[in-house]
Design a protein that fits this description.
The chain is of the alpha+beta class and 214 residues long. The chain folds into 2 domains: 47 residues, no CATH class; 155 residues, Immunoglobulin-like, CATH 2.60.40. The protein has 5 helices and 12 strands. The chain is elongated, with a radius of gyration of 26 Å. 16% of the residues are buried.
Length: 214
């Protein structure tokens, strides 16, 4: 019995010694960060809760995850705007990552005889929008119509560049911190599977862009 207890105790002592050695080799500044000591109050409380402080641009892209994605029976959309707080006259790229579901495809913009996928922004005096950009499409043979069409059946990205205008209202005084501009639009598409095409869908989308305070 004593011999068996020694066999179970030896691996434990080796693991303990290994942990002590690893902790001994960690530099003191890193030890302080890992323990939360020496951090600002907000960061220390996040560290205590097992959270990390995201970079500023990450906050603007994923401020509300529930509001950043859309799902229909045919595809999912994921919205992002790779932008820090911006000043007037700045350019911002809005993106829509589209993932068709299994066996689904949507028509590419160059397929003019059907309803292709598109992104249309609502009129907004605070910005000027360029035409959206789409990646190269793929050729697809649609057997029910005996036609070869241009489609997207794999994940792809729509990129929309906008310029935030320096309007008279923005030039007329201080802008407090936390001010944002909301850009709204619609993704319209018609999806098909291997046998049938479905009714067109209009999916509302929006982005909230933080503005520089002054």
């Amino acid at each position: 019995m004593r011999s068996r207890r020694r066999l179970t105790a030896r691996p434990f002592s080796m693991i303990t010694a290994h942990r002590v050695l690893v902790l001994f080799l960690i530099p003191l500044p890193l030890m302080a960060v890992l323990s939360g000591a020496g951090l600002p109050g907000a960061a220390r409380s996040q560290a205590a809760e097992g959270q990390s402080t995201p970079p500023a641009d990450f906050l603007s892209r994923t401020e509300d995850p529930a509001d950043r994605s859309r799902e229909t029976r045919h595809l999912t959309l994921r919205l992002s705007s790779h932008a820090l707080p911006v000043a007037p006259a700045s350019r911002v790229t809005l993106t829509v990552d589209v993932t068709p579901k299994a066996k689904m495809h949507v028509y590419a913009p160059e397929q003019k005889d059907v309803i292709p996928i598109g992104l249309v922004l609502e009129p907004n005096d605070s910005l000027r929008a360029s035409p959206p950009r789409f990646p190269p499409s793929e050729r697809y043979f649609f057997a029910p119509l005996d036609e070869t069409q241009r489609v997207y059946s794999k994940p792809f990205r729509i990129a929309q560049e906008v310029r935030i205008l320096d309007t008279p209202a923005r030039r007329g005084g201080a802008r407090p911190a936390g001010v944002t501009i909301t850009i709204r639009g619609t993704v319209r598409y018609q999806a098909c599977d291997e046998a049938v095409c479905y009714l067109p869908e209009d999916v509302p989308v929006s982005w909230t862009i933080p503005l520089h305070s002054r």
